[in-house]
Structure formats: structure tokens, C-alpha cells
Design goal:
7-stranded mixed beta sheet, alpha/beta, about 35% helix, 5-stranded mixed beta sheet, 15 helices, single chain
Length: about 400
């Protein structure tokens, strides 16, 4: 097996048993004395030494809490389903209505919920392996033939396919649906899995529709909306978390009207423009502020692109300050995109963007990461409170 490396000028050693510590040490002691490029070929077995009863390589890639004696998962906390499960069940149900719908993932069927689709529709499911660029280009090819591909990939991993999104999908205005799991803060998945950048990178793609649902029903409604679009790419982002409430069956959900926002609370002073799962803490913040005499509006900005221009124009006429809240990077995010539009239609209106600051986040529970970024009801209320104090000081 080392012939290829030897022909390329590498010294090749192996294959060796990666579970034999003595052999590993001896090999490294030898190889470090040599000069030039060296390759050590090590073979290991995932889960070596752990006597779990039924090995499942994919599930053990990122294992949830389990009993170390039996390998059985510990009971999950009660509450609504995870976003991933809601998505998986939704596309599985929608596939019965749309025979042209197929699902594509890149080595993460259970991680994206597409394993549910795979069981029901095996001939319409494609796992291309760890090849996100190929997944997107493959989807583009299918879309040219009247097939409606749903590409389910983690937000952070879709970054690998950015060229393909622009060159193969956007330029041809193909109706490929991108469903980005693990959007925003990802908790203990760690720094390399952070989904903080998809809003910024998808907003820049020409013709891309960018959306974020506030609950499971809206996720299904956005999927229906995407399937009704004859052309152009469409993306939906949702987090690694439980949804706020349980979602109804897909058959009971109507499409979300394209390009529309939703007024959740009508106020007279500041307006909070919340993206996706930030709607819940924004509403809680508004309730707390109302108790203090601050009457704020809350808007569900489920479409980040295109903007709901009709509602935006009404908002800038009624409010002197707009506060955007997004579970994503504040640099080049929704707030920045909105501010560019507002300064052309209402330059006197102030736009303040709340989001993840420009830094790297360490492993921690998602709730703690959101708190550190000020993306909680308390953090949102504190920022609005401070802005109101500034406005009062300027007026006086």
C-alpha cells in the first residue's frame, strides 16, 4: 500500500496497529530520526475496547449521554421534538405529495433527519459521503431535469460547497432547497461546527431566498413555500436544539406567503426585528419592557432575503429605532443587510444589530453561548433599555 507514497518521494511506514501503543511509540521514535517527508499509515477501529452490544459507527461519531456499562442512551428530557426530527418527518410527509422531491445529504443521514426519509423513500434518497460540493452540484443537475432536490447539510459544512452554490445553482437560478441544520450556536459540538456564518454567506448569493422559521410549523410552511417556487435557490436555517412547540403534521400546514414578515406584537416605540428562534426571547423581552413602560413592537423576520418591504416601510414610519436580533455573526449579517436598505428609505431611523460578536466560541451548552452573546430575553431587554436611555438623553 505504500508504493504510491514511495513513488512520490515519501518514506512510507505501515500499516501499523493504532491500538498497540508500544508499536506506535517505536515507530515514531524511528521515523523522527529520518529526514525528508514521511508517511505513517495507522489503522484504528472506532469504539475499540468499548463493548457496546450493537456497533453503530454513525451514532457513535457524536454520542449523546449513555450508560457506559450497556451503551444504552440515557432517557431524553421531555419536551417538544428537536428541529432535526421535525424537518425529517416533514420532508418524508411532503414527499408523498411531491413525487419529484428527493433528499440529499453528505454522510449525515441521522444528523440531518434524512434517515427518516431514507426509510420511507429509499430510491429517492442520496447520501454522497463527505463531499458537500458534489452534493450541491449533483442537486443542480437533478434540478435541471425537473426534480426538486432538498439538500440537508449542517450550516458549517455547507461552507465547503460555496463555489458550487454560486456557480452551479445560483447562476442558473435552479430551484434547489438548502436546509441548514446546526445553524447558529451549536453548544458542545464545538468551534468547528459553529453555524454562525450561513446568514452572511447566503445573503450574498444572487437570487438566493434566505429564511429562518420561528417554530416547527413555520419550518413546514417554508418548505411548502420553497416547493412552490419554480426557480431560484431557497435556504432554510434552524438550530441544534428543541423546537419551541411540537409541530403539526405537514398536511395541516399551509405555505408561508413568499417574502412576508409577521407582526407578533404591535408597539409604539422601538421595534425588535427577530430572526427565527430569536422570536421567543424577543417576545419575552418585550413583555418585560412593557412592565417598565416601554412599548416595543416585535416582528418575525422569517424572510431575511427578500425583505418584506411593505412592512419595513411601515415600521420606519412608526419607529425611530429598529433592533435586529439574529443567532448568527453580527458581521455582515441580517442587521447589516437591513441597515443598508433602511439608510436608503429612512436615513433618520437608527438600526442596531444584535448577534454573535466577532470571536471564536468555546465548547459550552448552547444556552450559555447565547447568554454570552447577549442573545437572551434579558440581553435583548438590556440593549433596548440602554438605547431608550440614549434617545431620552439626546432629546433632553
Amino acid at each position: 500500500p505504500g508504493m504510491l507514497f514511495e513513488e512520490l518521494g515519501f518514506r512510507y511506514f505501515g500499516p501499523i496497529d493504532g491500538h498497540n501503543v508500544d508499536v506506535m511509540v517505536q515507530t515514531f521514535e524511528l521515523v523522527k530520526t529520518l529526514k525528508g517527508p514521511r508517511v505513517i499509515h495507522v489503522i484504528t477501529e472506532k469504539g475499540k475496547g468499548f463493548p457496546h452490544p450493537e456497533p453503530d459507527i454513525e451514532k457513535f461519531h457524536a454520542r449523546a449521554p449513555y450508560d457506559p456499562e450497556t451503551g444504552e442512551l440515557k432517557p431524553a428530557a421531555a419536551g417538544p421534538s428537536a428541529w432535526t426530527k421535525i424537518f425529517g418527518e416533514a420532508i418524508t410527509q411532503l414527499a408523498a405529495e411531491h413525487p419529484e422531491l428527493v433528499a440529499i445529504t453528505a454522510a449525515m443521514p441521522s444528523g440531518t433527519g434524512t434517515n427518516l426519509f431514507q426509510k420511507k423513500w429509499p430510491t429517492r434518497f442520496f447520501d454522497v459521503g463527505i463531499a458537500e460540493g458534489h452534493a450541491v452540484t449533483f442537486a443542480a443537475g437533478l434540478a435541471t431535469q425537473g426534480i426538486r432536490p432538498v439538500v440537508a447539510i449542517y450550516s458549517t459544512f455547507l461552507q465547503r460547497a460555496y463555489d458550487s452554490i454560486i456557480h452551479d445553482v445560483a447562476i442558473q437560478s435552479l430551484p434547489v432547497i438548502f436546509c441548514m441544520d446546526r445553524a447558529g450556536m451549536v453548544g458542545d459540538d464545538g468551534q468547528t461546527h459553529m453555524g454562525l456564518y450561513d446568514i452572511a454567506y447566503m445573503l450574498t448569493v444572487p437570487g438566493m431566498t434566505v429564511t429562518a422559521p420561528r417554530d416547527g410549523a413555520e419550518l413546514i410552511g417554508l418548505l411548502r413555500c420553497a416547493l412552490s417556487r419554480p426557480s431560484g435557490p431557497f435556504c432554510i436555517r434552524y438550530p441544534r436544539d428543541k423546537a419551541p412547540v411540537e409541530a403539526p403534521p405537514a398536511a395541516e400546514v399551509a405555505p408561508v406567503p413568499y417574502g412576508t414578515w409577521e407582526m407578533l406584537r404591535q408597539g409604539k416605540q422601538c421595534a425588535i426585528l427577530a430572526v427565527g428562534v430569536m422570536c421567543a426571547p424577543a417576545m419575552k423581552a418585550a413583555a418585560a419592557l412593557a412592565a417598565e413602560g416601554l412599548d416595543v413592537s416585535v416582528v418575525n423576520c422569517r424572510f431575511l432575503k427578500p425583505l418584506d418591504r411593505a412592512m419595513l416601510e411601515a415600521l420606519v414610519q412608526a419607529h425611530r429605532c429598529l433592533v435586529t436580533v439574529e443567532d448568527g455573526t453580527v458581521v455582515n449579517g441580517f442587521g447589516a443587510y437591513l441597515a443598508e436598505t433602511v439608510q436608503t428609505i429612512a436615513p433618520d431611523v437608527r438600526v442596531v444589530a444584535l448577534g454573535a460578536p466577532d470571536r471564536i466560541y468555546e465548547h459550552a451548552p448552547r444556552a450559555r453561548q447565547l447568554e454570552a452573546a447577549g442573545l437572551t430575553s434579558e440581553g435583548i431587554a438590556a440593549r433596548v433599555r440602554a438605547l431608550h436611555a440614549e434617545e431620552a438623553a439626546i432629546s433632553s
